[in-house]
Amino acid sequence: MMNGGRLLVDCLVALGASKGFGVPGESYLAVLDALHDTRGRLDFILCRNEGGAAFMAAAWGKLTGQPGLCFVTRGPGATNAAIGIHTAMQDSAPMLVFVGQVGTDMRGREAFQELDYRAVFGTMAKWAVEIDQADRIPEILSRAWITATTGRPGPVVIALPEDMLSGPASAAPLTGPARIAEPAPDPAALAEALALLASAARPAILLGGCNWTEAGKTALKAFAETSDIPVVAALRYQDMFDNHSPCYAGDLGLGLAAGVRRTLAEADVVLALNTRFGEISTEGYTLFEVPAPRQKIIHVHASVAEIGKIYIPTLGIPAGPNAFVAALTPVRGGWADWRRRAREDYEATFGLPPQPSPVDMVEVTAHLRAVLPEDAILTNGAGNFTAWPNKFFRFGPKARLLAPQSGAMGYGLPAAIAAKVAHPDRTVVCFAGDGDFQMTCQELGTALQAGAQPIVLILNNGTYGTIRAHQERTYPARVSATDLVNPDFPALARAYGFHAEQVERTDDFPAAFARALASPSGAVLDLNISAEALTPRQTLSQMRAAAQARHAPR
User: Fold this and answer.
1) How far is CA 51 from CA 59, 64, 393, 409, in A?
2) Beta partners for residue 380, in sequence order
3) Under the phi-then-psi rule, with left for phi > 0, alpha for psi from -120 to 50, and beta for the rest, what region is 352?
4) Cα maximum dimension of the chain
5) Exposed, middle or buried: residue 106 (CB in 10 Å: 0-12, 13-18, 19+)?
6) pTM to 2 decimals?
7) Dihedral sign, CA of 534, 365, 438, 516?
8) Of 93, 199, 264, 374, which has the maximum CB count within 10 A?
């Protein structure tokens, strides 16, 4: 007779799952046994840490639009995976996390590695559930898949008691996923939204979210360009709109440029499309007044729970982004100069001074813009170094960015591995700081074993740069707990089967990167970056001097 583990795996195959990321555990041996027979249909990517596995699953969801699968054992395995669950939630990325659980006969005794997963993840995930009866697996998996992918997508945590998995199951597996139509806008609300935009003097579009289709992105670009309206992306969603378009006006991310801020601050009508209003994308909720903004906000989101959560919109429209933009018709107005200035403000952000560093990231990023293929996938974790892929790369319609809205260090390398698993023929480049890289560098072993080896650029400046910058601005010249003593990164990478080099000077980078592109085993390039070059426009010494002047007695 089929057991619960086999039923669960058969349901996942029927739903369309093809890859899962995880670390094995005795608490879900029946699932691992069932996966033995699905190789080539549903493959298990063996990871080195549950945090890395959860990052990979979160990145898979963001990249593909299908739930990333993560398998972890109970207790420590689940808590290690929490960082990826939090990241998927803040990214609005679909994800299913399967957690082994103690047997139902031991529950509530604080048994070995026992946790109440509904309590632990109830506020972190979109839904947390425990399956007590094997015959309910198809029902709950179908609901979990729908929950993860509809409305505002997000992670679902599913606890699996060990005896439920190993015990008999008589229910039939699922035969496929439910077909859920994306909610379309109410015609009257759509007409009102278009009228609001047409009446504007300075309209703008703010877009976000990761559940866009190619058709949806194409339709949005056509609407914006025909209507001549500037488009600003929310934090780390700049790959959802062609950055080469004359309507693209930058992103509301960390290190917000003054011109980009001005575009949203001075707009009189803002079409907020498929975005949640996060702290970073609103400059700490100061860009728009809480709760009633000065600007007229048209908030379009598939989840009613997001509309009015922070800001009272002039008009809220519950609708999916692709269905909404498909229904739009162009609007006309006298705002050509407004759109042109917004674009010029964005273009001006690329005018950077040379960096006080042996390897100058201004020139490195310019080289990457010139040589990377149009369908390149860039990834990063968290740190000041993320300015380079986030602010100074131009994402065309085929390029992708995988970067965490949660600001999670260590995301970049696992995300790059997941991208190579999904698209082995595409160029994947991970940007990592030296501190960021060491959060998940053991996943180089996962890349080696899975044959999914990206190119990794380590911006090695010997410090936790973001925190060091905050220290110098707040407590100048009092360095504490931010200097790093690093290993030999190229030697470490070579031990994992990667091509690896140290890049000491800017002039050495083009040839080193060409070798990285040509390497069949991925590559790690260790870039010699000075701590002075903490930000693109202000050096560490300038930060310190400015802070000391502020703190000087008067």
Assistant:
1) 12, 20, 28, 11
2) 431
3) beta
4) 83
5) middle
6) 0.97
7) negative
8) 93
DSSP 241: S
**Tens of pLDDT, residues 397-422:** 999 999 999 999 999 999 999 999 99
Residue with tokens 């972890």: 72
Cα–Cα distances in angstroms (integers) from residue 348 to residues 40, 75, 212, 479, 488, in the given order: 49, 50, 28, 34, 38
Residue at token pair 């699996």: 160
Residues 6+ apart with CB under 8 A from 84: 51, 53, 54, 55, 56, 57, 58, 70, 95, 97, 155
β partners of residue 100 = 160
Report yes or no: 227 and 331 within 8 Å, Cβ to Cβ: yes
Q: Is the dihedral of CA 57, 62, 64, 66 positive or negative?
A: positive
Write down the residue that tokens 């260790």 correspond to.
526
pLDDT by residue (tens digit) across 153-189? 999 999 999 999 999 999 999 999 999 999 999 999 9
Q: How many Cα atoms within 13 Å fall on the side-chain side of residue 470?
A: 9
Compute the distance between CA of residue 181 and CA of residue 113 in angstroms, rounded to an integer.
Answer: 41
Please tell me the predicted confidence (pLDDT) of residue 143. 98
Reading the block at residue 468, the tokens are: 């060091």
Residues with Cβ within 8 Å of residue 495, at least 6 apart in sequence: none
Which residues on adjacent β-strands are paired with residue 433?
A: 459
What does each C-alpha distance from 492 to 445, 512, 513, 523 come to in angstroms? 11, 18, 19, 12
Angle formed by the axes of helices 4-15 and 137-149, nearest 10°: 40
Q: Cα dist. 522→60, 429, 494, 499, 501 in Å? A: 19, 10, 10, 6, 12
The backbone torsions φ and ψ at residue 130, rounded to the nearest 5 degrees and listed phi first, read -125, 135
Radius of gyration of the chain (CA): 24
CB 404 within 8 A of CB 411: yes
Q: Which residues of the chain have pLDDT under 50?
A: none
The DSSP string of 136-165 is GHHHHHHHHHHHHHSSS--EEEEEEEHHHH
Q: Phi and psi dihedrals of 190, rounded to 5?
A: -60, -45
CA nearest neighbour of 446 among 438, 454, 434: 454
pLDDT of residue 243: 98
For the beta carbon of residue 1, count every other beta carbon within 10 angstroms. Answer: 7
Nearest Cα to 253, choosing from 225, 273, 275?
275
DSSP 519: -
3-state secondary structure of 540: helix
Query: With b meaning 16 or more CB within 10 Å and e meaning fewer, what string describes 33-58?
Result: ebbeebeeebbbbebbbbbbbbbbbb
> What DSSP assignment string belongs to 15-79?
HT--EEEE---GGGHHHHHHHTT-TTTSEEEE-SSHHHHHHHHHHHHHHHSSPEEEEE-TTHHHH
Q: Which two tokens stand for residue 292?
A: 């009633």
Residue 17: per-residue pLDDT: 98
